Amino acid sequence: MTKRLILVAGNIGAGKTSLTERIGERLGYLTAYESVADNPYLADFYKDMRAWAFQLQVFFLGHRAQLHLDMANSPQSAILDRSIYEDAYIFSRALHHMGNLSERDYLSYKRVFDMVVSKLPPPDLLIYLKAPVAVLMERIKRRARNMETGISEDYMKLLDSFYDDWLSSFDLCPVLTIRTDDLDFVHKPKHLSIVVERIEEILSGKEEVVFPENSN
Question: Does residue 216 lie in a domain region?
Fold first, then answer.
């Protein structure tokens, strides 16, 4: 069996962790997740974003680069919750846009990022989970994580627009776009099977697919 590396991308609340867990179980892939509990900068960042934005993004860059390399070098197929590319094209860009990351720090970060990712093996597939911002806000409210209490609808809309920009020129691998407001792969096994089928179709050589048109 050919070894595969799949990345799962998407806005906050899109369902990345849930899909990563279930695809890992269904296909027998290794799974890897973004670092939150052991992140030494996150608490300070939420207290003072401008003071700690650069340090946080450098930490995430090193963490995700190591995860990407570890999973790419593993003999077993793997799926990663959140891609290293989102750090630069979505979150660092947003911090810079909002004035929490200075121009000098942003350019320094981007230089290091570009050098790091140029040495990484490309993924075989990027799964992009997409849902309307109103749906994402409701999910964030429902799961009630302390660190997410300050997330605003305007911020989510900004991230959503940056995802559109990034994916309009992403060409490292095929992209499978999934509308998670229409697809409930957590509670409906049939919907998870649809996702697995699409993944296998893409990996077998089909072009980019956006679905579902009707998953009821």
Answer: no
User: Which positions are annotated as active-site residues?
Assistant: 81
In a domain, 117, yes or no: yes
**12-70 residue pLDDT tens:** 999 999 999 999 999 999 999 876 767 888 888 888 989 999 999 999 999 999 999 99
Q: Residue 6: beta bridge partners?
A: 79, 125
Is the whole-model pTM more than 0.85?
Answer: yes
Q: How far apart are CA 45 and CA 62, in angstroms?
A: 17
Distance, CA of 55 to CA of 63 (rounded, Å):
12
- CATH number, residue 202: 3.40.50.300
Q: Which residues, in sequence order, are bridge partners of residue 136?
A: none
Amino acid at 153: E
pLDDT of 120-155, one tens digit each?
999 999 999 999 999 999 998 888 777 777 788 999
Paired tokens of 31:
């799974």
How many structural domains does the chain have?
Answer: 1
How far from the centroid of its chain's Cα atoms is residue 135's Cα? 17
Rounded-to-integer distance, Cα 158 and Cα 70, Å: 31
CA distance 62 to 142: 31
Q: From the CB of residue 163, how many other CB atoms can be counted at a distance below 10 Å?
A: 21
